[in-house]
Structures are given as C-alpha cells and as structure tokens.
Amino acid sequence: MEERDQELKRKVRDIIAVVIPDIDAVMCDVENGVAYIEGVVPTERERRQISMAVRRIDGLAHVVTCLSTERIMKPATEHENCELYATPVIMHYHSLS
C-alpha cells in the first residue's frame, strides 16, 4: 500500500472512531485513492455522518460505502401468540458509490 493511501486510511479511521463507539464494527481500506468502508453502525445518523465526513477528505478520488444500520426487534416474548425465539437483528445495507 502506498504511503499516501496509508495516510488517507488513518484519516478515515479517525473519522470512524469519532462517530461510533465500536471502531471494530466498521472496516476500511484505501487503494489508489479510493476508500472502501463497510460494517455495521448503530443508526442511520452515524451512517450518514461517516459517509459525509469521509467524502470531505482531500486526496480521496472516490468513496465506496457499504454500511448497515442495525435495529433490534422486540423480543418474541413481547409479541402476542409467539413462542420463545432468539431476538432477531435486522440489517439494512446502504451502498453509495
């Protein structure tokens, strides 16, 4: 990886670290000036914050994001006429190129 790509990757990681508490939930890489970001963020707000902030980084030619937001449904015990099941997690994937 080129030195410039390494520097850009550090800037992307810094943004992610400021926006979400679990930096390990989002992975990023930069190759030839193109940032690739993927992972899970708590809400749509954080997804938008990361996408918009990364797009403002000077030196990036393009940003490809595949960030999902997670929404945890109510446990099955709170639904009428349901047997006990594990709480499902619904993932919403957004990809902007």
Q: Would you mind describing this structure in some detail?
A:
- It is a single chain.
- The protein has 97 residues and is α+β, with helices and mostly antiparallel strands.
- The protein contains two helices and four strands; from the N terminus they run αββαββ.
- It has helices at residues 3-19, 44-55; strands at 26-31, 34-41, 62-72, 89-96.
- The chain has a four-stranded mixed beta sheet.
- β2 (34-41), α2 and β3 form a beta-alpha-beta unit.
- α1 packs antiparallel against α2 (44-55).
- The longest helix is centred in the first third of the chain and has 17 residues, at 3-19.
- It is elongated, with a radius of gyration of 17 Å.
- The mean pLDDT is 83.
What are the salient characteristics of this protein?
34% strand; 2 helices; elongated; 97 residues; alpha+beta
Amount of beta strand? 25-35%
Helix content: 25-40%
| Computed CA radius of gyration, to the nearest angstrom | 17 Å
Distance between the termini: 22 Å
Largest sheet: 4 strands, mixed
Strand order of the largest sheet: 1-2-3-4
Number of strands: 4
- Our count of helices gives 2
Element order: H for helix, E for strand: HEEHEE
Average pLDDT rating: 83
| Class inferred from helices and paired strands | alpha+beta
Strand-helix topology:
Blueprint: H1 3-19, E1 26-31, E2 34-41, H2 44-55, E3 62-72, E4 89-96
Parallel strand pairs: 2-3
Antiparallel strand pairs: 1-2, 3-4
Helix pairs in contact: 1-2
Q: What's the short story on this structure?
A:
The protein is an alpha+beta fold. It has helices at residues 3-19, 44-55, and strands spanning 26-31, 34-41, 62-72, 89-96.
